[in-house]
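WARN retry 2 of 3 for item q-0093 after timeout on previous attempt; input resubmitted unchanged.
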Amino acid sequence: TTEIYTLSLHAALPIFPILIVVGDRDEFANPLGRLCAALPQAEVLTLRKTDYFATAASLKCIEKVVDFLCQ
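OK item q-0093 returned
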């Protein structure tokens, strides 16, 4: 049943750009395996030496999000 649900979920997902930004020290969002499997079209940016709370304030994160939105 899980496999059928997963396949139907993928079929129902719209095709649009997705950016996932996570810090390598983020204990809340890691591991990303299930999220990336559910969103195979997503681009992933992993910030080094960054935890959950510092991710959004990271200059690299901000630059990547702005670049991504301007595509």
